[in-house]
Amino acid sequence: MKQYLMKALAWLRRFMAGRYGPDELTAAIVILGCVFTFLSNFRPLRFMYFIGMLVMAVAIWRTLSKNIDARIRERMWFLRVIEKPKAEFKLLSNVIRDRKTHKYFKCKNCGASLRVPRGKGKISVTCPKCRVKTEKKT
Q1: Fewer CB atoms inside 10 A, N or C side of the chain?
Q2: Alpha helices (H) along 17-101
């Protein structure tokens, strides 16, 4: 059995040589396809199954593509698009995690997020980006 798996793995390596393979955009497309497929379980949304399968086919096509330059451009575009929402989500999760020990606020000059410890009274905070000093109550 182990020898069979080794041969199958070697075949897969040879098959994928020169192909793009999976990336973040492909994973997002697969998740979107799964959402469409899940929505197709509801009676009025049965047509979503075909949309979900079409989206999954696009993910497979991207993975097996040999046009690596185009796939890299698509990936870079995707990463630029999700950069801001991803940062906002990370900030929100940090605010929730640190809600008892730290207070977050934005710099009035540049808009950077600043974190200060709670319970220190009125303190002077210097923004690390623009070096503007502000006084905040914690």
Answers
A1: N
A2: 24-39, 48-64, 68-97
